[in-house]
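Example record

Each entry pairs one chain with its bound ligand, flavin-adenine dinucleotide.
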Amino acid sequence: MICAFGLTEREAGSDVSVMNTTAVRSGDNYIINGHKIYITNAGYADTYIIFAKTDESKGARGISAFILEKGTPGFSFGQEYKKMGIRASMQRELIFEDVCLPVENRIGAEGDGFKIAMTALDVGRLGVAAQGVGAAWGAYDLALEHAKNRVQFGKPITANQAVSFMLADMATSIETSKLITLKAAYLLSKGLPFSKEVAMAKLVATDTAMKVTTDAVQVFGGKGYLVENQAERFMRDAKILQIYEGTNEIQRLVIAGHILK
Ligand SMILES: Cc1cc2nc3c(=O)[nH]c(=O)nc-3n(C[C@H](O)[C@H](O)[C@H](O)COP(=O)(O)OP(=O)(O)OC[C@H]3O[C@@H](n4cnc5c(N)ncnc54)[C@H](O)[C@@H]3O)c2cc1C
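Structure tokens for the complex follow.
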């Protein structure tokens, strides 16, 4: 079964407390109206976890979470977005027009939605950190292989410190990202608090992915800029990692919140 997670709205990205989607109680049902944007797997997924305001006066504390099945009357999808990267993954809008959901489709109590969303994002961030490690690693492997074989001025380009130091920095930051991601995964697997560590892992691993994939393109020279070369794809794919599952600025807010407690 494919699932999707519908939190983001046009006016509510990093700040989900201002979401406009509403769920109004009507007997044993809720009537959902509103929309979501950029939702991964929208259209493909069978099941959607969506977030809506059950009390508009309470901000984040007025958000509740619901399970919504594809095919429910009033539930439809907008256009597919065209993106810079991760083109194997699809995003569309979710549209809710008087969608009627039974009360038993609510997850947790009314008002638990924000907490549920943040808990899900913590786990999701671990996956994004791992994506960062993978993208950086893949691009580095390609760049290393190319650099060892590419001869200019009568010697491999790795004979230049400018290139070998770039590769050394890549290898070091990938190793650092791997370790901090594994630490967050370890804490999660032991049921220990990991919110701060996973925010750190997402921040470090995805900033590393952006830097390493950009440097990998540089190591390839002109060939790196060509679409036929995997390095450019890694670079385009890396960018989203700094944005979704909470931007890297939001990760810094999370980390600061923990260390300034
Ligand atoms: C490909 C893709 C897939 C996605 N998949 C999903 C999905 O499946 N489900 C879902 O719900 N959402 C999804 N999203 C949405 C994604 O999580 C949001 O785009 C992201 O959280 C940022 O929100 P925003 O785009 O509204 O940017 P904004 O919140 O408008 O941010 C714009 C800029 O301002 C900065 N900023 C905002 N507030 C602060 C602050 N307090 N301090 C410092 N800087 C700040 C941000 O860091 C960013 O740089 C997806 C997005 C994309 C592009």
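The chain has a mean pLDDT of 97.
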